[in-house]
Design goal:
With about 190 residues, this protein is mostly helical. It contains seven helices and no strands. Helix 2 runs antiparallel to helix 4, helix 2 packs parallel to helix 5 and helix 3 crosses helix 4.
């Protein structure tokens, strides 16, 4: 018997993590030649965080749990904002992208921590209108598992991207032409 059975919150979290941290970056890479988002990293990051935090508001969770259409719309909004964000990070590929990854990653971790350390079930969901594999109501254990999944997966994808981007930026510094004085001294 597992310590915590996945309930509606943790099943939704797995879906959202797959959408926002795997599918969206892959789609952004595939669209990189069609979408120049280099100037939109701030609005893209803000939109993603507003969508993420709004989705996790108890009122929005109740709406999504009671209506399949609302659940689909909210998942679509998360997906679109995630694709926009990852497209902006890829297009910028500079210090702004690193800052956006750091800030949005921290805000996602904060939300996950709130779910993990909440002393009660914040949502009280009766179940989901569109249930993939979990039925039944949300519980405090389900909420803690969902928050733990968020705290684990979000920083991992952001960290991997941030490290790769930082290495790329440091490589550019190493390849940059030296100033005339440095070149003259080297001779």
């Amino acid at each position: 018997m597992p310590l915590v059975d996945p309930g509606p919150l943790s099943v939704q979290m797995m879906l959202h993590l797959g959408l926002m941290n795997i599918a969206a970056p892959v789609i952004a890479v595939l669209l990189r030649h069609r979408f120049d988002a280099s100037t939109s990293i701030l609005p893209a990051g803000l939109a993603q965080m507003v969508a993420l935090w709004a989705w996790h508001a108890p009122m929005m969770q109740q709406l999504a749990a009671s209506s399949g259409l609302a659940q689909l719309v909210l998942v679509a909004v998360l997906g679109v904002t995630a694709i926009w964000f990852w497209s902006a990070v890829i297009a910028a590929a500079d210090w702004r992208a690193l800052a956006a990854l750091l800030l949005t990653g921290k805000l996602a971790c904060l939300l996950g921590a709130l779910m993990v350390f909440a002393p009660r079930d914040l949502y009280g969901l009766p179940g989901l209108a569109l249930s993939l594999c979990a039925t039944g109501p949300s519980t405090i254990g389900d909420q803690h598992l969902a928050g733990l999944l968020m705290i684990t997966a979000c920083p991992l994808s952001y960290l991997v991207t941030g490290v790769a981007l930082a290495a790329r930026l440091l490589g550019r510094l190493d390849d940059s032409p030296r100033s005339d004085n440095a070149t003259a001294r080297a001779r």
